[in-house]
Write a structure and sequence with these properties.
10 strands; ATP-binding; ABC transporter transmembrane region fold; Rossmann fold; ABC1_TM_sf; ABC-type oligopeptide transporter activity; binds magnesium ion; binds adenosine-5'-triphosphate; 6-stranded mixed sheet; nucleotide-binding; 639 residues; elongated; 21 helices; alpha/beta
Length: 639
């Protein structure tokens, strides 16, 4: 189903004059919203194993009400002219719809050719056309307004996503964040375009029809009114049931697609672990559960149509029977009877939409709540603070402590100085907090206590944008973006580097040879997350990118996984080129790196337990000596 066309059908149902076909069950009125997001409460346990301690639970946000919904929509500034026009047209079409039965009555009662004037026919035609054209055009306008709302909401969310700090991404699963952008915005739009206006005009037309019915023949109307509580007695429980199933389906779909996402993106792990059978079972179980829910939804939905047509048929029989008697007794005219039947439709059809409307309404409130929750998250302020032109002064840590999300302290009271132009190697057992220290230097997180200073000035006083622009970070896994090698080398660089610059960076990163050997050279697609390149190649692209950024402070997280010795040597040489003349902090896993370093910090369980050169530490620090012998790699000497 397309995003833009699903509005017309259900809206039209509510406002059309005489559509004797039973209303479609609520199931079919649903806009195609893929995999509705899991709220924090219903989210699957995070399968791609976020680091322990990162899964802090969200405080339960207060449930969004219609006021929040209205505010959210108002903030997208829907075009006023269009909205007014759409509303006016809808109302006009509704009023025209109310006039049509009356006009028909005139037409029928005057039904003898002699008295049938052209004016009569023209008038009726005008009302028909007004109703149809008004309905169509207002549908179109509503679709435009709906698209405006979705686009503005998505823009806001996207801006938000780009400004959200790293801790937000620690707390939330990718799929959850993505569905906020894609499906929640659609649900919000769906309520406006497909349901809200249709519901309101439907109620107006029902109320109008009721008044006109009473005027036409109050006795017959009162008899018919008995049927309304009857219909409500059927529709309300059905609606509640539909609502419950819809919610269960939403949660199940969210869990299912989250699971699917994890399995598909980690298919290599699945295969390497021989977990195909297990995943197959789990996937199939999810599919079956969705099927069962779908069947239940179908069963409930199947009752809706027949209930409505049964009510309509019963009423028709009663009206035609009783009305026929009154026509033949001369109490009412044949035209009255026809008008009566037509008005009846205008009452029943909107009423049958009530259940659908409330299901959609609840969904939209849920979506509003989730969107508002995300919009309320604090942002990083990129531009705020001093502009940092160069970061070529000493960087000092004083009493630096940090724990993720207020959890266990990971870094405890660190103190060190990074001299400009020098290389500091950080070594220590896995999980000691080395990468965490880099995250603090990148200002992904704020220290819990203590400070980081650049030339005596807290680094927090510089604008994030200018601070990070001075840093080149080559991460442990050398992540790449889908795109070409050129895209990846120039990623985040605003200016367009010349072809020579690009080649030079690739040469210094020892990446030029393998790039030239690729059939498409710099235009080679690297695949999702750079999957089509080897680990060593990815690292060298990462190094080339860092070279192009020409940073003052270089953060290198050497890969923990060993490359083959040949690749290891070229990566090592590339890193050597990169470090030249820069303040460098390197998390070292290679002996050659620590031997050449100006100072080494030995980080254990969040504390610095040893510092000095390789020789000094070998002599003074027992654990370092053991670590250097057992853990640091010694690639064959470059030949
Ligand atoms: N985003 C995060 N949220 C919560 N805890 C985290 C997060 N990242 C890391 N940790 C925890 O912080 C501790 C230090 O992790 P860190 O990645 O800094 O270790 P490391 O010294 O770099 O280890 P390795 O040598 O294995 O790379 C670990 O206990 C880890 O579980
Ligand atoms: Mg690490």
């Amino acid at each position: 189903m397309s995003e833009s066309t699903s509005g017309a059908s259900s809206r039209r149902m509510a406002s059309s004059t005489a559509a004797p076909a039973p209303a479609p069950g609520p199931a079919t009125a649903e806009p195609a919203a893929p995999a509705s997001p899991p709220g924090p409460a219903t989210a699957e346990p995070a399968a791609p194993a976020p680091p322990p301690g990162s899964a802090t639970t969200e405080p339960a946000a207060p449930r969004a009400g219609w006021r929040d919904f209205v505010r959210l929509i108002a903030e997208t500034k829907p075009p006023r002219g269009l909205s007014a026009a759409a509303l006016t047209l809808s109302l006009l079409a509704t009023v025209a719809g109310l006039v049509v039965p009356l006009a028909t009555k005139q037409f029928i009662d005057g039904f003898s050719l002699s008295r049938l004037t052209g004016g009569h026919i023209a008038l009726l035609a005008v009302f028909f056309l007004l109703q149809a054209a008004g309905g169509a055009y207002s549908s179109y306008l509503l679709a435009r307004i709906g698209q405006h709302v979705v686009a503005r909401l998505r823009e806001r969310l996207w801006r938000k996503l780009m400004a959200l700090p790293v801790p937000y991404y620690d707390r939330h699963q990718t799929g959850e964040t993505v569905s906020r952008m894609t499906s929640d915005t659609l649900v919000v739009r769906g309520l406006i375009t497909d349901h809200l206006v249709g519901f309101v005009t439907g109620l107006i037309s029902a109320a109008g029809a009721l008044v006109l019915l009473l005027l036409l023949d109050w006795r017959m109307t009162l008899i018919l009114l008995v049927a309304i509580p009857l219909l409500a007695g059927i529709m309300v429980p059905l609606g509640i049931r539909m609502n419950r199933i819809a919610k269960a389906t939403q949660d199940e779909t969210a869990g299912f697609s989250g699971h699917l996402n994890n399995v598909v993106s980690e298919v290599r792990l699945v295969k390497a672990s021989g977990a195909e059978q297990r995943e197959l079972r789990e996937g199939l179980a999810g599919i079956r559960r969705l099927q069962a829910l779908g069947v239940r939804e179908g069963a409930t939905g199947a009752l809706v149509g027949p209930s409505i047509s049964l009510t309509i048929m019963t009423m028709l029989v009663v009206i035609i029977g009783y009305g026929g008697v009154r026509v033949s007794s001369g109490a009412i005219t044949a035209g009255d009877l026809v008008a009566f039947i037509l008005y009846l439709m205008q009452i029943i059809l909107p009423l049958s939409q009530v259940a659908v409307f409330f299901t959609q309404f609840n969904k939209a409130m849920g979506a509003t709540e989730r969107i508002n929750g995300m919009l309320a998250e604090p942002e990083e302020r990129f531009e705020e603070g001093l502009e940092l032109a160069r970061a070529d002064r000493p960087i000092v840590a004083e009493g630096l402590s940090f724990g993720y999300a207020g959890g266990e302290p990971i870094l405890k009271d660190l103190g060190f100085t990074l001299q400009p132009g020098q290389v500091t190697a950080i070594v220590g057992p896995s999980g000691g907090g080395k990468t965490t220290l880099f995250s603090l230097l990148e200002r992904y997180y704020e220290p819990t206590s203590g400070r980081l200073l650049l030339g005596g000035q807290p680094i927090g006083s510089y604008s994030l944008a200018s601070w990070r622009a001075r840093i080149g970070y080559v991460a442990q896994e050398s992540p790449l973006m889908a795109g070409t090698i050129r895209d990846n080398m120039t990623y985040g660089i605003e200016r367009e580097p010349s072809a020579e610059e690009l080649r030079e960076a690739a040469r210094l990163a020892y990446a030029d040879e393998f790039i030239d050997a690729l059939p498409d050279g710099y235009d080679t697609q690297v695949g999702e997350r750079g999957i089509k390149l080897s680990g060593g190649q990815r690292q060298r692209i990462g190094i080339a990118r860092a070279l192009l950024r020409a940073p003052d402070l270089l953060l290198l997280d050497e890969a923990t996984s060993a490359l083959d010795s040949q690749s290891e040597i070229v990566v090592q040489q590339a890193l050597g080129n990169l470090m030249e003349g820069r303040t460098t902090v390197v998390i070292a896993h290679r002996l050659s790196t620590v031997v050449d370093a100006d100072q080494i910090l030995f980080v254990e369980k969040g504390r610095i337990t040893g510092r000095g050169t390789h020789e000094e530490l070998l002599a003074s620090h027992a654990l370092y000596r053991e670590f250097a012998e057992r853990q640091l790699r010694t690639p064959a000497a470059p030949g």
